[in-house]
Amino acid sequence: MPEGHTIHRLAADYAERFLGQQVRATSPQGKFSDGAALVDHQVLDTTEAHGKHLFLGFGADRWIHIHLGLFGKVGFGTAPSPKDLRQAPVQGGPPSPPTDTVRLRLANPDAYADLRGPTTCALITDAEKQAIHDRLGPDPLRPADDGGRAWQRISRSRTTIAALLLDQKIIAGVGNVYRAEVLFRHGIDPYRAGRDLTRPQWDAIWSDLVALMREGVRHNRIDTVRPEHTPEAMGRPPRVDDHGGEVYVYRRDRQGCHICGTEIRTAGLAARNLFWCPGCQGAGGAA
DNA sequence: GTAGAATGTCCAG
DNA sequence: TGGACCTTCTACG
User: Fold this and answer.
1) Distance of CA A80 to the CA centre of its chain
2) Which of chain B's bases lie under 7 Å from a protein CB?
3) Catalytic, out of A9, A17, A52, A83
4) Which of A151, A167, A175, A222 is most buried (most C-beta within 10 Å)?
5) Which of A 69-88 have CB under 7 A of nucleic chain C?
6) A32-55 pLDDT, tens per residue?
7) For the stretch A35-53, what's the b/e string if a residue is b when 16 or more beta carbons lie within 10 angstroms of its beta carbon?
């Protein structure tokens, strides 16, 4: 479920519940028991996101590095955590859910956070953390980051803009949904080579990503349709099948484009599904 | 019940 | 380029 907005939201959500406090850290699943033991009873002093990477800081030179991959998820709840319930079952209460997939649980007297299914959950040093930053491109959600750095790479590349947008070395945090949607919003053919974009086009894409992804953090979901294209504005049924966000093309293949009615198309590109509207994003097309 | 897909990334060949 | 990996949910028997 995670694109960059999810990770930045998680950084804020962990901070809200645990920052500046000693936490209990455990690995009910067992795969991170050693790491959890090293931060157990330590104070969480920093939470930070860069692209799809999340860092939880516990004092000098000690970070938990989390990458959710395709399936990872964090569930927050109020204390007691499910495991605690199991240890002291409430008489007549509901059966506690299974917890054996929880890689990392952070808990304090008021709240818990359960991490499941991450690609990465590891204890790292400052130097290892810096190495991760060094191989990531600018992130539209990091205020100090600058799209110009990405342009240096894009403007010299023969690779398609659709592939470049997913390359985390070039721009960090964009995933399959934002890539499809931002190209649609700017009327850009996904197969156009990076070097065939103009600087103004790239600047517009970058600032649009900043705005869209900030909204994504606020609402914890991806919405990309402009006000005039919402279900209410157009009198069309809202999207129900998906994660709730209103989009133009992502997973809308074989349905009509909200703007021009052309059938949305899909194709594999670099092992991911690409979605676009041939009408609005044809050669030189502008939405 | 079981297969397949899913907003991601790495590595071997 | 294909497979491996991590988990959850849906569609289909």
Assistant:
1) 28
2) 6-10
3) A52
4) A222
5) 69-73
6) 999 999 999 999 999 999 999 999
7) bbeebeeeebeebbbbbbb
Q: Which residues contact A203 (CB under 8 A, 6 or more apart)?
A: A147, A151
Q: With residue A209 as reference, give the H or E element that holds it.
A: helix A199-219
Rounded CA–C1' distance between A72 and B13, in angstroms: 29
| CA angle at A6 for the pair A8 and A163, rounded to the nearest 5° | 100
Per-residue flag: A71 CB under 7 A of strand B: yes
Q: Do residues A157 and A193 both lie within one domain?
A: yes
In this predicted structure, the answer to whether residue A94 has a pLDDT above a threshold of 50 is no
Within-domain flag for A139: no
Residues A130 and A152 in one domain: no
Whether residue A285 lies inside any domain: the answer is no
A283 inside domain: no
pLDDT at A237: 84
Please name the residue whose C-alpha is nearest to the C1' of nucleotide C8. A71
Rounded alpha-carbon distances, angstroms, from residue A266 to A96, A252, A254, A277, A284: 42, 9, 8, 9, 19
The answer to whether the beta carbon of residue A2 comes closer than 7 angstroms to any atom of strand B is: yes
Total count of domains within chain A = 2
**pLDDT of amino acid A100:** 83
Q: Is the residue at A284 inside a domain?
A: no
A165 shares its domain with A123: no
**Boundary (domain end) residue, out of A76, A100, A134:** A134
Catalytic residue among A149, A199, A218, A272: A272
Residue A251 phi/psi, 5-degree rounding, is 55, 30
CATH number, domain with residue A208: 1.10.8.50
Residue nearest to nucleotide B9 (CA to C1'): A69
Our answer to whether residue A2 is catalytic in this structure is yes
Answer whether any strand C atom is within 7 A of the Cβ of A273. no
Q: Are residues A232 and A270 in the same domain?
A: yes
| Residues A52 and A107 both lie in one domain | yes
